[in-house]
Design a protein that fits this description.
This protein has 27 helices and 18 strands. With 753 residues, it is of the alpha+beta class. It folds into 3 domains: 440 residues, no CATH class; 126 residues, no CATH class; 121 residues, no CATH class. The strands form 5 sheets. It has a 5-stranded mixed β-sheet, with helices on both faces. A 5-stranded antiparallel β-sheet has the order 11-12-18-14-15, with no helix packed on it. Strand 1 and strand 2 form a beta hairpin.
């Protein structure tokens, strides 16, 4: 390990230059790939989730933040769902602040640019903390930021943020291992909090495991007598968890109520072609795959040769062992395809760890290749150079013809380096290899992850198609969007924005009640779990089927679909329009969103409730099903009526507050076809009232005869508890920093001592 002082390790000019490189390279990459100006391009299959969830979610949540409201609840998806509690939305992620300033389309491009820049520059900083020289450190940053795996994750805000912040945590831990002090401990906690706030639970879990390996191996410690910072790493983790509690606490309570908590939290789409065997990985390593799906194992033609050079490192043995162990450990579950580790995290997630390892090994290999040469006759001088050149020749012979052109410039740079032993030649050769790697990775990934942020048909706006057609038919109301998220023109419009209330397949995290509901609407195929149901097209409703009855209970007045033949167009559904492949069906049996019923049946759970709801003879306009065993005494005291005359309507509404007025001829149940969830409370004429789960997933409140005013309010106490913990921890850090600066000033004063 190079025992360098801080000014030597972090010279301002070279680091500024590295930052400028990534600042210029990142927009070049992303403008080409993600935002081609003046034309509309076909979106890649991997970006379906970006259209279906990320863009409209950012538009909804941060649009509300601009209005001065904390987006606790989203009332336009799944008949209402918690918004802030879902970590994917990342309301506390600093990089997501771009959505406060920009619309979701341009905001996604700027977010990707910032993430790409931070990923490369912070990994450069991490490599410098390991003792690598500037050019090798920048090389590692290029491989990490632009390599196949990392580039794939840049399409989604949550994964892009995780990839961006991870190197900062490793830098802080390395610096603390080298020289333990409160500042580096605090930096580690803050950077770990940024990683946790990214919103990607799978990547956060992966990098946490790699941080544990980093601490266990004592990366950054000098000498055999130094102690690995295992205890301090745990302190950093605890501090990071406390700082991120504003997101973690509500997410934990939210996930605990889901149908498959672990599966829902660790959900992540595959972002590219993942190798399934060592031979497949070798193929990925040698050449990128043309077409829409990039190989996530391609990191540049020069990287395999640089890895061989890394094996000659003597001054950075612990970093070398760490990167080798991390890469091998992450490849095993990818190849296994199952088992505990393979089932815990998706293969694409493990490839992020491989990308991290390959970038580190590339930096170490380049550093060894460019090491100062004191004795020209020493084998330690020529061995790395010989092996790099030899491996490069073998790669040239083994790779397909289209890849050979990527290797020739690397061999030329190495040959130039061998001929000229001056320091300027070393610097020039290293810079040439770094540039070749960037150009190689740029060419390999260009035109793969594309989405039309400029011009075209307005893919990110539901106003362009769905809302226009619905309004034209005077059918404005709650709509169900049935589409394949991986294909079709309707998928990008199935979002959260616009005046329509959407209920459809954009969310993968479902409560047991929602899972049971969707199991009736779209029965699982094969071994698919309930959490996968909402991701598939809604295909089985039509006529007087049980599914169409559920649509009516949910107050769905409009069905927009690309597959109208699947709905059957029976007695309950009527075709009203068709435009650009999207068919609009009117649900003539839709019930009002707010209604009064005089009869109710009680059942123990949602499954039993659905059995009654879909049975012949059930009349949702006159009765409801209460799936609860609590507070039934009040229900038994009320005399049920076959018919209740009166009215119920929504008077005032925000996502977190609904005020209704009703006038009933007898005591009745006020049914609101909005999602039942913990955190909702109600008052009837100013007095507290209990909210019952009715019709398997909605809200019901008992109201007396006569006129009543009912107010439902969403106050999720885990959110406020998490915010309190985060602010208290942050305040403690600020106080500790102030005390530390005061003591330092006192110790440095002339009269001290």
């Amino acid at each position: 390990m190079n025992a360098l002082s801080t000014p030597q390790r972090y010279a301002v000019a070279p680091l500024f230059l590295a930052g400028a490189v990534f600042m210029l390279a990142a927009p070049l990459f992303w403008i080409q790939v993600e935002a081609p100006v003046g034309k509309t391009v076909e979106r890649a299959a991997e970006n379906a989730e970006l259209f279906h969830r990320a863009a409209p979610a950012m538009a909804y949540g941060f649009g509300r933040l601009r209005e001065g409201a904390l987006p606790l609840w989203c009332d336009t998806q799944l008949c209402g769902t918690p918004w802030l509690a879902d970590p994917l939305n990342g309301v506390f992620q600093p990089l997501n602040a771009v959505f406060l300033l920009l619309p979701s389309g341009p905001g996604l491009a700027v977010h990707a640019f910032l993430s790409l820049f931070l990923a490369g520059w912070l990994f450069t900083l991490f490599c410098r903390s390991l003792g690598a020289r500037h050019v090798p450190a920048v090389t590692g940053g290029i491989v990490y930021a632009f390599g196949g795996a990392s580039a794939a994750f840049m399409s989604r805000p949550e994964t892009a943020a995780a990839v961006a912040w991870a190197p900062l945590v490793f830098w802080a831990l390395t610096e603390h291992a080298r020289r333990p002090r409160p500042a580096t401990l605090a930096a580690g906690g803050i950077s770990y909090a940024l990683l946790l706030l990214s919103g990607s639970a799978p990547l956060a879990l992966l990098f946490t495991a790699l941080l544990g390996a980093h601490a266990a191996l004592g990366v950054g410690t000098q000498g055999r007598g130094t102690r690995p910072p295992r205890g301090d790493a745990l302190k950093m983790a605890v501090l990071g968890v406390l700082l991120a509690s504003a997101q973690l606490v509500p997410a934990a309570f939210w996930a605990a109520g889901l149908d498959h908590p672990l599966e829902s939290l660790l959900r992540m789409d595959a972002a590219g072609t993942v190798p399934s065997s060592p031979s497949a990985f070798l193929g990925h390593l040698l050449a990128p795959e043309p077409g829409l799906l990039p190989r996530m194992g391609y990191f540049g033609a020069a990287v395999p040769a640089l890895i061989f050079s890394a094996g000659f490192q003597r001054g950075m043995r612990r970093p070398l062992v760490f990167f080798l162990a991390a890469g091998g450990g992450c490849l095993l579950p990818v190849f296994a395809g199952g088992g505990l580790l393979g089932s815990l995290l998706p293969p694409a997630c493990w490839m992020a760890g491989v990308a991290f390892s390959m970038a580190g090994l590339a930096a170490l290999g380049m550093d060894r290749l460019l090491a100062p040469r004191r004795d020209p006759r020493s084998p330690r001088l020529w061995a790395p150079l010989f092996f790099v050149f030899a491996v490069g020749v073998l790669l040239f012979l083994a790779t397909p013809p289209e890849t050979k052109g990527r290797i020739v410039p690397v061999l030329a740079a190495v040959g130039f380096f061998a001929l000229f032993r001056a320091s300027w030649a070393s610097l020039l050769s290293g810079a040439a290899i770094a540039f070749i790697l960037f150009a190689d990775l740029f060419a390999a990934s260009a035109n793969v992850y594309q989405h039309p942020l400029h011009g075209g048909d307005g893919v990110l706006s539901p106003e362009k198609r769905l809302a226009r057609v619905v309004r034209g038919q005077a059918l404005d109301g709650r709509a169900l969007v049935s589409t394949d998220p991986l294909a079709g023109d309707l998928s990008p419009n199935a979002g959260l924005t616009g005046p329509l209330r959407m209920d459809g397949g954009a969310f993968f995290a479902l409560t047991p009640e929602q899972a049971a509901w969707w199991a009736v609407l779209a029965p699982p195929d094969g071994d698919d779990g309930p959490a996968a149901v909402a991701a598939r097209p809604f295909l089985c409703a039509g006529g007087d089927s049980p599914a169409s009855r559920l649509l009516g209970l949910a107050a769905v007045r409009v069905v927009a679909t690309e597959t109208p033949q699947a709905f059957g167009e029976g007695a309950g559904l009527r075709r009203v329009d068709s435009e650009a492949g999207v068919t609009i069906l009117a649900n003539e049996a839709a019930l009002p969103r707010a209604r009064l019923v005089g009869k109710w049946r009680t059942v123990p759970d949602a499954a039993a409730a659905l059995a009654l709801l879909t049975a012949d003879g059930f009349d949702g306009a006159r009765e409801c099903v209460v799936s609860s065993v609590l507070h039934l005494g009040a229900l038994r005291e009320v005399r049920q009526a076959d018919t209740v005359e009166g009215s119920a309507r929504v008077e005032e509404e925000t996502p977190e507050r609904v005020a209704l007025s009703c006038d009933a001829s007898a005591p009745a149940m006020l049914v609101l076809a909005d999602t039942f969830a913990p955190g909702w409370s109600a008052t009837v004429n100013g007095a507290p009232a209990h909210i019952y789960p009715v019709n398997a997933r909605f809200r019901g409140v008992l109201v007396p005869a006569g006129a009543s005013r009912v107010v439902m309010t969403y106050r999720p106490y885990p959110v406020y508890a998490g915010l309190a913990v985060s602010f208290a921890t942050l305040a403690g850090l600020l106080v500790a920093a102030f005390i530390g600066m005061a003591r330092a000033a006192g110790a440095g004063s002339p009269g001290h001592g």
